[in-house]
Amino acid sequence: MRSLWLLPAFGLLLSCSKPADQPPAANGVASQADSGPVKGVDRSHKGADAPDVLFDDPDGGKIGLNTFKGVPVLVNLWASWCAPCVKELPTLNALSKAHRADGALGVVAVSEDSAAQASVVAFLKAHRIDDLAPYHDPAMKLSGALGAQILPTSILYNAQGREVWRYVGDTDWTSAAAAKLLAEGGGAAH
User: Fold this and answer.
1) Could you tell me the CATH superfamily of domain 2-13+39-183?
2) Cβ contacts of residue 155 below 8 Å, gap of 6+?
């Protein structure tokens, strides 16, 4: 039965590809949708409302993204088995610390691991990730509702809960380039 849980996780690793029987694009040029997700900024969902999906909060209760309305928030989908996710977590942790006092940006890192939430807590502790709360989505409902096909994927929502952009793949969230992107959410960037 445990192997069935692995199937959704592997789906996140694969990019979408156009079925072979589908005709080419009318102009003869393949679109991004034809080739699947590309690492970097994706603005194709700009203005979309955050999905109304519940996931586990740090206390084991249920929470949704609408809880974070009122402040821009960066939502990061990650997993402990994902090497780029693990590489990126310290920069998300630093970003969260930088905005803890000013409240200009929330950082919500949601684990897509199917294991128990206690394992997420232990993983974050072992990696000295001390400012990110252990949000958990073991059924991967949030990544499914967002259409996230690759981990990590980060989505910036403005204070009204509308998507500004999403970043597919890992990045350094403490870099000048990331600060410029985060400023698009309407909050202060450090």
Assistant:
1) Glutaredoxin (3.40.30.10)
2) 45, 74, 75, 77, 146, 163, 165, 166, 167
